[in-house]
């Protein structure tokens, strides 16, 4: 009797995911994987379907067809709070913090049982400004708060939607260092939708490229970084 080959475990397994808004299909037949402790970048131009894919994975958008599994357990079609309980946290595009609430309130509202001291240790600036309103923070501090809020739920999979958007280059470099720490010190799996190629290549092991709602290319990040012809073809850079 032939033995089956062992399969590599996946923190996230998405198969033939189709999702959209009302009757409008935004992403079609998307298949991707993220392994334990792996960082994967989802690249594409504006409107390619990256945000829709992350929202469907997180349960903020109900898939039309296809499957989403977290550590082998199906979460497709579950409400977002149940997907979150399975170990998934989404940092949405635009950060979406509560501007009138303090830093501490933003964090504890997300999860009163989370490790607030741990978040302040990871983001010392948030500890210093714990009583400040979200609207009083800089763009970089707001992104730290958005990520810290997601980490309060103690996820195993972190979804980052355009985290570098609107940030100065030096802040983006700090963000890259932070993502590396989350992987290596906390063991998080990360799926990052990003248009900043420098950040994507810095943090990701592998990349998927989306175009018009479909995954059109998959490669090791280093291979895609060095293939300028493919970058021009798919991303126009």
In short:
The chain is α/β, with parallel strands linked by helices and 237 residues long.
Q: What distance lies between the first and last C-alpha atoms, to the nearest angstrom?
A: 52 Å
Main sheet properties: 6 strands, mixed
Q: β content, as a range?
A: 25-35%
Q: What is the radius of gyration?
A: 18 Å
Number of helices: 10
SS content category: alpha/beta
Q: Could you say which overall geometry the principal axes of the C-alpha atoms support?
A: globular
Q: Strand sequence of the main sheet, in spatial order?
A: 6-7-8-3-9-10
Helix content: 25-40%
Element pattern in H and E: EEEHEEHEHHHHEHEHEEHH
**Stretches with pLDDT under 50, minimum 5 residues:** 1-6
Could you give the count of β-strands?
Answer: 10
Mean pLDDT: 90
Task: Explain what the structure shows.
- With 237 residues, the chain is an alpha/beta fold.
- It is 37% helix and 26% strand.
- The chain has helices spanning 50-58, 80-85, 103-110, 116-122, 124-128, 139-151, 169-186, 197-203, 221-226, 228-235; strands at 12-21, 24-34, 39-43, 65-70, 73-74, 88-91, 157-161, 189-193, 206-211, 214-220.
- The strands form two sheets. A six-stranded mixed sheet has the order 6-7-8-3-9-10, sandwiched between helices. A four-stranded antiparallel sheet has the order 2-1-4-5, covered by helices on one side.
- The protein is globular and about 45 Å long.
- The N and C termini lie far apart (52 Å).
- Mean pLDDT is 90; it is low at 1-6.
